[in-house]
Amino acid sequence: MAAIDIQSTFQALYYASLLSILSVGITLSYMTTKVFNFAHVRFAMVASYVAATIILLLAKAFNIHGDFAWHNMAGMQVRIPLPWWVYAVALISAFIVGGLVAVIQYYLVLRPLQKRGAGSMALMISTLGFDFILIAILFIYMTLPQIRRLTVKTVSLVGRVAFDSLRMDSLDIVISSGSVTIRGAVILAMIFALATIIGLYLLLTRTKLGVMMRSSIENPNLALVLGINVDRVFAITWFIAGAIAGLAGYLFIFATVYLTPVSPTTPSDQIIVSVFAGSIVGGINSVPGSIGGGFLIGLIEKFFVPLLSPVFGPGIVKYDKVFSMLAVALTLLFIPEGLASVNWKRVFRLGGAKGKES
Amino acid sequence: MVNAIVLTEQILSFIGVYTIVTLALNIKAGHTGIPDFGHAMFFGIGGIVVGNFVAHLAAALASHVVPGVTVHGVLAQNTETLNLLNTKYFPTHPGVAIGLLIFAIVVALVLGGIVGWLASLPALRLRGEYLAILLLATAEAVRIFVTYTKQIMGSTPTVGLATPDLFAWAGNSAAAATIFTVIMAIIVYWVFERIHHSPAGRLFRAVRDDEDAAKALGRDVVVVRRDAMIIGSAVAALGGVVYALNPFLGGGAVAAVSIFNRVFWTFWPWALMILGGMASNRGVVAATALVGILLIWPIRVYKVQLAKALGASLLGLDPNSFGNALEYLLLGILIILALALKPEGIIPEPPSKTLDFRKKAEKILKEEKIEL
Amino acid sequence: MPEPMLSLQKVNSGYGKFHILFDIDLEVPKGKITVVVGPNGAGKTTLLNTIFGLATIHSGKVIYKGRDITHVPAYKRAKMGMAYTLQLFNIFSTLTVKENLLLATYDIPEDEAKKRMEEVFQLFPRLKERLFQRAGTLSGGERQMLAIAISMLRKPELMLLDEPTAGLAPKLAKEVFEAIRHLGDQGYTIILAEQNAKGALEIGDEAVLIASGRIVARGKAQELLQDKDLSRKYLGLEV
Residue C95 in contact with residue C134, Cβ under 8 Å? Predict the structure, then answer.
């Protein structure tokens, strides 16, 4: 396999975009509640399930499932399996469901515990507890007869247990021209990442709500004194974090073959550590930092590590996450506030020779 | 239907291994305040010791005795080689098997301790949640490295390595493994109780409660935390050995996806520790036993009946998946309720006479007229 | 006697499980300056936090303008005409000056907000020049201006001031006290917590002395200032 070709470059861009929109959610929730949220990527899973079932049910209802049409567009073959509005409905649902799950966690778990004076470790464990509850809900959801009709049996790697999974791979839009095939999910991921960056930038700097969010994060007491309902502002921040995770969940349904509530190979369980890595390497207290950090980690794993394969052999790509974990360790030990906290002007003035990690 | 004896053995094995792993976590997190979210990495070492080191050693010893067994075969023809060892070698060589068992325990303790010490070197510069994430990331890096390194876990990461049955010489090897599991758990509990009531144990808790005061009294906080990391990690590796040798737990094989699984060997022990009570050994055993007897095994064994009793089928739910869901649901709800209603656990930390560092430090500093 | 602006009845409060104030009874008369003095760590800031709802009230009642506000959240008290100038971190340093000022007026009708903003700029033209600068980059004096401007924009009926002269040179502190007296003469109701007991008592109307979380003396500010025993024991003043 050639180390880098167009196809795998696109794949890397997809992955990097996915990580960056999930990392920013980790950062948003950390900045408000000061808790590393282990359930964050599960928000995406929940949204993914909702969006997937909406697509499958709508397709069934309108009898369009499996009736794939191939269109010719300016010499390119474009496969569009379903009408656009089916995707749109699913997208909006994913966005809202992701946000609602986050708000539920904020109001039902984190706020009550904080009011009882729980420490940061206790809060972190509670996010694990909430994650388990979400997994359980997904399992139960999967067993509903209406949903079960849509599922296939897959086998988990651990204990070889059979799971009911949603089979999703036929949904993606594929644009092919000659030997190059671009999956719609790749383009969609980049659009989502860009929309997240622009949307958050406008929200945080140009709107009243955004200024309230920033003020409540910096100094909750002063915000309260000025009459800002900090609790509600934080809940809205959580909604936004969850809704962005919902976008990531929407991507899962195009990019993965099966959806399973939990397993070491489920998207959420596989990428959660990389998502944390992005948030921490970029800067746990910086919104732009975490977006960049997620993108960087994605590129390290899927672009830079494959570049090493001529030297270390193709086996190196399997160890991709080792490199991002190394980046986390170095960041935490030397610049705990992440790359965003580095005074880059000074670093460059001291001589451009110094690497990024220094 | 499940045989009552087998069910008992299953429950005891579950309680045994989780008692070991959770007590090991407790000495780090509960007693000393190190938020180890990379606990699974130390547990996994025990699995490697059994699945890889012991198997190699056994093959070397057996290669002259049993035809077809080669050292090379442990990785190359894993299933066949281990099958030969388990059926043709261990049943007739109980002395070797017991020797290997002791070897496994000693090597796991030493290796676990060394890795724990290595992890403590960079880690103890950090505190709180940053340290937690650093250890989580380290464990994840180790897991991925182990998963894809053929020399450690064999060529198929998901299948892993078949484990040597060191109890094959006993009439009922599964029962022997269960008894071994329980004995190890009792020993670990006894040792940790001794530590708890020793000056070292009080020192651990004093560092957790008031690092500054401990420092002011000239106690090297880093050394204390390092010691806790070494002890806890060594015992976690022992837990891995117990897991790998117990057919009810490992199922005759160790794979990176199971022994380095952060949900099973990091998050579960955390949940059990919170439930039982941080720094309370008795609480940990109680929580493990409670979850083991009342919740997990009945759900795993009787999930179909349970689902029916709860009316899952009336709702159109598939009883099998509903059983899976119940496990996660109960654990998740228990964690959150425990944190909200009983943050000190079902059996809170016994009020031992800790060295009250702050009072002592204040007294000394008052004489020297320095404000703490 | 007219109804007090604010009264505390047998209030016990603190933070979470920590109990700091014990059985506080206090009446704050309308249009007067009530000075809260006491040694360091006596609970002056906690008293202000209790009044504003930033502390945990374990028992007792807080009555504001005849209404029981014990369980009213802090942000709602801000909308009921209370303002509070915190001692530390009293501006948002990562926000621009303009954003700081906007935050103080976001719940006020736009026309009114514009009018008040103009008033502030007349008083502090410096702030208008610095409008798009991050508040964290302001000088110490400019920060204090911004903090006061934020409080002014809210046109409060009851002002809580926590150590407004902390860290200021004596001359500057005197000016601040005079300004507060001036506000008092205009009819503002003010609760002033001060470490600088002498300066505060000189301009105050009513006074309470707190020590170890309890009110140990109360009366007219001038009387407290004259009380040699109390002054020496709690305030370190030589009269």
Answer: yes
